[in-house]
Amino acid sequence: MLEFILPALIAGIGIAALAGPLGSFIVWRKMAYFGDTLSHASLLGIALGFLFNINLNLALIICCLSIAVILVSLQKQKYIATDTLLGILSHSALSLGMVAVSFLDNVRIDLMAYLFGDLLAVTTQDIMWIYGGGFIVLALLVALWRPLLSMTINEELAQVEGVNVEFMRLILMLMVGLVIAVAMKFVGALIITSLLIIPAATARRFSQSPEFMAGLASVIGAIAVMLGLAMSWHYDTPAGPSVVVSAAAIFMLSQLKRAES
Q1: Which keywords appear in this protein's UniProt record, sorted alphabetically (predicted)?
Q2: Which structural domain range is residue 109 located in?
Q3: Which of 75-84, 122-131, 188-197, 219-228 has the weakest average pLDDT?
Q4: DSSP states of the chain as a string?
Q5: Contact (Cβ atoms closer than 8 angstroms) between residue 25 and residue 172
């Protein structure tokens, strides 16, 4: 059992550690729809990876980062509302990915595994991708925490203080894209954003500082991973959705506890 669960546990905790601080920024900046757009577009990366016969992790990273850059670029124009633009890109990229997959007659693809994740199928190479990408994201967060936080609180004031808001916005989107890319295969394209949002939303109610919220969100995410894997092992439920259900249960319990107090 330990040999079977341990790789999934290591990968899940690594994803949770990244999801905590980035999910906090998504909650603070109300960027949930941005995350959904990137996660839906990640299926296109899977199709391109099979089409050009390249590493799927690399294909996912290239696709998610490219979509992140496109999103930030198109957001600058004012002809289409941001939510409309995100809706167009999100569903178009997801549909394009599924159509592209249907043309790969010589490749057998389990779409359910990519849509809802397969955390128990993680390999050593996958763990290396998660922790390699995680190291880059955490290093950027440590280096840019203050300007990112300043931009989140008040963009106009951050500009007055000398923060390059456009660049910080791009960096934040690229980090979200990178985390979604390395986590998508294990949590799933349709539910990866929930693992970013739910622990952060849970931690927000118990936090007195942004740093504490980011750290607590990672801890809550790690607990949800352990509970989800335990549920998957004992009740033969899909691992990715089980992790999200566990995170949602923790969130509901936190709301009840706060309501009582």
Answers
A1: Cell inner membrane, Cell membrane, Ion transport, Membrane, Transmembrane, Transmembrane helix, Transport, Zinc, Zinc transport
A2: 2-192
A3: 75-84
A4: -HHHHHHHHHHHHHHHHHHHHHHHHHHHHT-HHHHHHHHHHHHHHHHHHHHTT--HHHHHHHHHHHHHHHHHHHHT--SS-HHHHHHHHHHHHHHHHHHHHHT-TTS---HHHHHH--GGG--HHHHHHHHHHHHHHHHHHHHHHHHHHHHHH-HHHHHHTT--HHHHHHHHHHHHHHHHHHHHHHH-TTTHHHHHHHHHHHHHTT-SSHHHHHHHHHHHHHHHHHHHHHHHHHH---HHHHHHHHHHHHHHHHHHHHHH-
A5: yes
In this predicted model, what pLDDT tens digit does every residue of 182-201 receive, in sequence order? Answer: 888 788 877 888 889 999 99
In a domain, 122, yes or no: yes
- 77-117 pLDDT, tens digit each: 767 777 788 888 888 888 888 888 777 777 666 777 777 88
Q: Specify if 238 maps to a domain.
A: no
Sorting pLDDT into bands at 50, 70 and 90, what band is 236? Answer: confident
Number of domains the chain contains: 1
Closest CA to 217 of 141, 158, 166, 154: 141
